[in-house]
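Reposting from the mailing list since nobody answered there.

I have sequence plus structure tokens for a pair of proteins and want to know whether others read the tokens the same way I do. The first protein:
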Amino acid sequence: MKKAYLASTFVLISAPSLADAPADPGEIRNLPLSGFVDQLSLEQLGNLVVTDTKLAQAADTVTQRIVVLRNEDIERQPAHSGNLAELMRPTSGQFVNVLSRNDANWGSYAGLGPKYNSYLLDGLPIDSFVDAMSLDPSAIERVEVHKGPASVLYSNYLTMDFVGNETPLAGTTNFVLKSRVDTPLTRVAAGAGSWGTVFGKAYAQGTQGNLGYIVSANLEHSDYTQYGTRNSWLQTTQAPAYQKNRFFGNFSYAFDRPDHTVTVFYQRTLHQGTMGRPNRGFDHTYDTLNFAYSNTFSDDWNIQFKYGERRYDRRFANDNYPTDLNLSNHEFTRQTIRPADLTLSHRHWGESLLTAGVDGQWVDYQTDVQDPVGAVTPSNRAQARSTGYFVQEKLVWDAWVLRGGVRHDTIHHDYDLLGGITPATRSAAWSKNLWSFGTRYNADPGLAFYGNVGTSFMAPAAKQIGGTVAVPTASGELPNPGLKPETGVGRDVGVNWRASQALTLDLRGFLNTINDAIVTNIVSAAPSQVRSENAGKARAMGYEVDLRYAASSETSVFGNLTRTHTRVTDPTNADHDGTAIPFAPDTLANAGVLASLPGDMSVATYYHWVGRYYDSTSRSARLGFGQYGVVNVRVQKPLYRDARAAVHLTVDLNNLTDRHHAMPFDFRDPGFNGFAGVDVRY
């Protein structure tokens, strides 16, 4: 049984909840890769991290700061908009700014905008905008938030939608799937809440010989409410109803041993509804596939191959508001991204690890506009591909960890159609050498110092070059064919201090700089139009302080503070010179209390404070936001429990103080909302 449910553990292990407590290094040092899974207990395996090197490693051998959210952390967080980005809201350094249940997160990371922290699904890149909206949290076992200039082992994500390419300059976030199956489990859940929201879920996991499987169906419907400012392009005349249906299956098979596995994950999400006017409907379909093969073929050698497909089919209807509510057109965006990764790992000198490999991506992107009588006009047709070669050495010598890696990236774009016309430039290509170095000194088992530096490279996306606006009055992105690629350098230093078993303190300082920074500026509010522009140089510097204290086994508290100062330098444009980086608040703060109460009741209370931030680098046109606090609470209580089954009640109370704070692009928080659900497990 142990071998069956640990079949894919070797590739998919994470680390402890919101802490840095490693597995005992003395227990795992000098263990060969072969048989690694069999020689460690489940607790030891659960105290390892995987994002740093793509293999399970002790957390005290990682030079970057890693925060890990376990499954229990995920399940005690209130669900506001159902976006995976919200799982990271209580952590420092990350501004989570989900615009609505139907829209993406436009936040920031370490003073940089939403495209500077890449998202991974078991080590393969995904879209932090679209996939964070579509993926089912029930599929996630753990989340590793890998802060600082991320490893050279991971590529950019070549998405053409939203703000384009995404790079791990400020870090990367790895969503680890539930591929381990230890015991059979069936879950059936149902609930209801504000704005006519109803919810149902069926989930089952089990094993058949060496095969472990998980299948789930998740259905949600809501009448919802107006989530835009009054008389804006988001003004409603009826309830903006939506329906979101998510289905996934995850299958893992162990061959002759538990460290020789193949895993397949597939999810389909159907998201339909109306934005609150008769001709403002939408119909989106998202398909996500992950395939992973791992084989530890000798004592100290491992090979992994991963392949994925991400299909995005997004359809919007537009009207002539505020002139009239008649249908103006339909917009169609279709994109397929296929990432692949081949990695070879060699363990030597105890816990030291050499990692080398190649990865690639292939992208097909197209947009169309359909007029009211059904005539379709192609707008954008583009393809992209990338190839990356990487090698990294991590040396573990006594109390020191030294890490260094290099990467060579090549990106090629082909433009058949941009903005409805054949462009004069039909293709573009870029090549760049990247590097990343880090060190860590474990002064004693409870005190460590670290520092990292690394480079990044980001080419403009076809959407940014060609735009999505077919007519001057339409909402969308305006074209900018003169965009140049940007380069960046990330740096951080920090200290982890576990003062006692109950008290943990972390301090991290960061400095990120970008040349030819590509920023998204709001050009018009009605219609809602943006344009990507090169803004000269950009700099973000600041610090994070994290404190956690476990007062007892029943009560723990945490708090963190992030202070950031950002500046754009563009001497050629006085309107932009000296302004702040968009979407990056100057202050972020979180506090929370996690408590067990009499009657087996548990309460998790979270407070989030957001300081001042802006939506543009234009001093004359930008709007200011922030300066608000939000309180969210989740209450859980078992209603019934015996040896075979359990029934749990969950109540979410979001935005307790009913703050209707404004957000960019004329969005606003709809205020207080509540949700209650019952979960049956057997």
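The second protein, same order (residues first, tokens after):
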Amino acid sequence: MSALDVVARVVLPLDGDLDVLPLYVDGRHVQEPVAADEPPPPSLPSDQHPDQVLGRRSYRVPAGGGTSFGTYLNAFPASYWRRWTGVREVVLRVRTSGRGVLMVYRSSARGASARVTSCRLEGDVTHELRLPLDTFADGGWYWFDLVAGDEDLVLEQADWAAPVDDDGPRPAGGTTVGITTFDRPSSCAALLAQLGAADELADVLDEVLVVDQGTRTVEADPGFEEAQRLLGDRLRVIRQPNLGGSGGFSRAMLETLDAGRSEHVLLLDDDVVCEPEGIARAVAFARHCRRPTVVGGHMFSMHERSVLHAVAEVVRPWQFRWAPAGPSVHDHDLARRTLRGTPWLHRRLHADYTGWWMCLVPVTVLRDVGLSLPFFIKWDDAEFGLRAGAAGHPTVSLPGAAVWHVPWTDKDDSTDWQAYFHARNRIVAALLHSRYDRGGRLVRESLLVSVKHVLAMQYGAAALRTRALRDVLRGPEALHPELGSTLAEVRRLRAGHDDARVRPDAHDFEPVTPRQRRRREPATTAPAGRLGTVLAGGAGLVHQARPVPPRAVEAPEHELAAADAKWWSLARMDSALVATADGSGLAWLRRSRGEAARATAEAVAVHRELLQRWPELASRYRGALPELTGEDAWRRTLGMDRR
């Protein structure tokens, strides 16, 4: 005999948001019934309306209309379950009232769909369909459509379940949620309330830990009282100094290990909006995995809520940089091209790591490979995924589990103070995990990034990168002791440069005064191909050697949107007002021959030393890794050894 373990519920949004509705239901790809005993509707509407949402799990299909649940948040990612779990069939249970037709479909890895079965619906009825997973080796989903007859058809509820043996082993323990927050009290309190109000998480969450590292505490926010009421004694707030994401998440990991109650720790950013059902799905998936597996959630854009910003992420070994896993792409709008119209989403994607905006980690993995590296921010999640994978613990970026988050394209994190952590932590991660003797193309690519900052008059960003590499050359010994002090030093270093002096309005600067004589305007489109890039770089270098016109120092010559402020444009300018990526202000960039020459020489020297010392540094960092990520070192850094 087998019991059924519900692993995914069909859910619906309750806020009436038209932007997210296409992630749950689809009216454009419903096929009309073709069997003789199935009543063909007169027409199938192309759009669904929020008024059809009757509840969290209930939906009304108007008479003569149809709705497909072959959507990102309600289809079943069969290939992922086939590959990573021991489940060999899934049971679809659909309860409806009214008259109509239920049709079940499956897709291939190419995105081609085929009908599996269909059945008539009459009155209040529940259909239970057993669907095999044996043909989903490299991709494919299951889903169902509903078509109403001559009266409304109501989906009362539906779910996907995995058969389990009655006498089989049951996984013990639930999940602890770890949220690291810094001065985002309102966002954090709203997230806590969302977790507390979710019925599907009532039996999933053991504890919700908030590691508050800010000066504006979440407990002081007006929304915290409601969150505390909903979560009750499952909510705990821990105050500690600002040690970045790695310090906050490592604290959550340690607290989970010490409690000895949970099977997993779920890491969440403080400024996300979650789909609680996605958390329940991630936990269910992890419990059925054949080996301890890190399970990640996808990221939707907070600003364009139907846009799937990040799916599965890999680290390209030769360049050692982040990239979307092929054939996926960033920023795919599921309102324009739904799941059924996006072939690459039907492929089962490989991931090297998952972002810590939503990441479920089994405690057995923590005991095996350790906690986060003391990176403060950036690359801590990628390095952890690579380390876990090397120890035999895969990362799965699971469709249907996702959060909404501000996309990184709306941030200046490659040019502001975060540029230091980008550069340092990428190099350290490569020293630990690169398969090449001297990091492949990484050192050369890193130098080119620094030179591009110089060409773009971003001397502060270039200085931060040089400081970052010098710190790498010092070795791993300072990572823990300086975790809490590096940020202040980095901010002071950057503050002395023009690209750090951001003001809210263009009127805060001298009026833009274009040069009267200019043979040609600087390029605003990307150079074409490698030759075009070389030519653009050469022209930029030639321009750096020319004297700076006095008027460029006295007033900006251009005003650029953030999207146009690329190195190939700025490299031909002498001064420009440049907007920040989030639109909150502008900085006046001014060319300086002295600063450019000094920054370039420093960048070349530090990269040359890094390349020469790579084998020795790789040996030192790899030897220190168990200590850096170990519980004892983190307890000392967090002050937990003095309890």
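Reply #1 (J.P.):
I read it the same way you do. The two ends are 50 Å apart (CA to CA).
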